[in-house]
């Protein structure tokens, strides 16, 4: 599969497919951090050692692929243009750290883009699995399958008492980061989110924006993940997160029902005003686009808007990011040029659906 396939298909299969509770949970992700025993960690190793790590994992990839995952394609960061790397970040296939700071960084991607193995990121290996809806257990099963395949040929840095050793102490132990991406517009509109986030943090979980640490919750999309990796099993970490997510799903649905009862016409008006902005704007910034897309998706979920697929909104959330806009333009764009092109792209996509 060529790089063009990865960057031209705006929405990966894990984001376009329906999954359990996908009206609220956009995706589930499992990430496993691993390091090779015989090499220094990425925070300390030399350029030569980074290259040796990459070659070792390349050799592993040449021996086949894990079970049902299918063929994995290797993409080396130093062979990609900055814009191409940005597109991969916007599709959640690689991390911003791998795109910007890695030394001999690379990733191996499965054909359906559900599996991404990042090489020489903050750790030597980061195995990532993405599934639509609330499917943390299913993503964990695939991640473990890839992990077992990798461990057949490489020797991990592992301590009998501490578990898997990682560059960041917060990942030591299981090395697992389980997360879900959730659309919570009703909790935001009712301002309940302001008391919920601190409560979630007290449970050993963290709430971040759409692109993880340091990012904003654009379009009322939040990423909830575990902070504790030591002293609990992978299964327990996933089950604890699922329990909190189920409570958030229930609270979001209750908030939507309350809005429909107390502010139905105001909410319907908000939804259609946002749709009007998307369908008619000639200039639109990314934050406004994200807000309007969130409103329209809520309108679809609540039955205000008919005959418009949620998949289109998932697609537009990716297509309207700066990297994709510039990729489609064939080169760099100034911020004002991106705002014009973003508005045109949204109008064209909505017209195609109609």
From TrEMBL:
Activity control, per UniProt: Appears to be allosterically activated by the binding of pArg-containing polypeptides to the pArg-binding pocket localized in the C-terminal domain of McsB.
Motif (RDXXRA motif of the pArg binding pocket involved in allosteric regulation): 338-343
Annotated binding of ATP, by residue: 27-31, 92, 126, 177-181, 208-213
Keyword annotations from UniProtKB, A to Z: Allosteric enzyme, ATP-binding, Kinase, Nucleotide-binding, Transferase
Protein's GO biological process: phosphocreatine biosynthetic process
Protein EC: 2.7.14.1
PROSITE patterns: PHOSPHAGEN_KINASE, PHOSPHAGEN_KINASE_C
Domain Phosphagen kinase C-terminal: 24-255
InterPro entries reported for this sequence: Arg_Kinase (IPR023660), ATP-guanido_PTrfase (IPR000749), ATP-guanido_PTrfase_AS (IPR022415), ATP-guanido_PTrfase_cat (IPR022414), Gln_synth/guanido_kin_cat_dom (IPR014746)
GO cellular component: extracellular space
Job of this protein: Catalyzes the specific phosphorylation of arginine residues in a large number of proteins. Is part of the bacterial stress response system. Protein arginine phosphorylation has a physiologically important role and is involved in the regulation of many critical cellular processes, such as protein homeostasis, motility, competence, and stringent and stress responses, by regulating gene expression and protein activity.
Protein family per UniProt: Belongs to the ATP:guanido phosphotransferase family.
Annotated NCBIfam families: PRK01059.1-4, PRK01059.1-5
HAMAP family in alphabetical order: Prot_Arg_kinase
The protein, known as: Protein-arginine kinase
Species for this entry: Bacillus methanolicus (strain MGA3 / ATCC 53907)
Gene designation: mcsB
């Amino acid at each position: 599969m060529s790089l063009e396939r990865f960057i031209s298909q705006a929405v990966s299969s894990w984001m376009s497919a329906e999954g359990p509770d996908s009206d609220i949970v956009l995706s589930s992700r499992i990430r496993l951090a691993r390091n090779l025993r015989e090499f220094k960690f990425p925070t300390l190793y030399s350029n030569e050692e980074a290259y040796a790590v990459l070659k070792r994992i390349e050799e592993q990839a040449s021996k086949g692929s894990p079970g049902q995952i299918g063929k994995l394609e290797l993409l080396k960061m130093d062979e990609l243009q900055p814009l191409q790397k940005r597109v991969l970040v916007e599709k959640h296939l690689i991390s911003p750290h791998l795109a910007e700071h890695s030394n001999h960084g690379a990733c191996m991607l499965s054909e359906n883009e559900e599996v991404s193995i990042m090489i020489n990121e903050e750790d030597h290996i980061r195995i990532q699995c993405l599934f639509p809806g609330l499917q943390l257990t299913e993503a964990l099963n695939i991640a473990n399958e890839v992990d077992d395949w990798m461990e057949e040929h490489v020797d991990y840095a592992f301590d009998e008492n501490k578990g898997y050793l990682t560059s960041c102490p917060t990942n030591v132990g299981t090395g697992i980061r389980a997360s879900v991406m959730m659309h919570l517009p009703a909790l935001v509109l009712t301002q309940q989110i302001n008391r919920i986030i601190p409560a979630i943090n007290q449970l050993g979980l963290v709430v971040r924006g759409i692109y993880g640490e340091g990012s904003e919750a654009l379009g009322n999309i939040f990423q909830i993940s575990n902070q504790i990796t030591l002293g609990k099993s992978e299964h327990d970490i996933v089950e604890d997160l699922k329990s909190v997510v189920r409570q958030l799903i229930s609270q979001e649905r209750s908030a939507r029902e309350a809005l429909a009862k107390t502010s139905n016409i105001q909410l319907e008006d908000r939804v259609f005003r946002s749709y009007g902005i998307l369908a008619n704007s000639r200039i639109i910034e990314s934050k406004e686009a994200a807000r309007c897309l969130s409103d329209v998706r809520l309108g679809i979920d609540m039955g205000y808007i008919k005959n418009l697929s949620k998949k289109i909104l998932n697609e537009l959330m990716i297509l309207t990011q700066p990297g994709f806009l510039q990729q489609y333009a064939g080169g760099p764009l100034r911020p004002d040029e991106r705002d014009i092109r973003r508005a045109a792209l949204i109008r064209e996509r909505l017209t195609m659906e109609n």
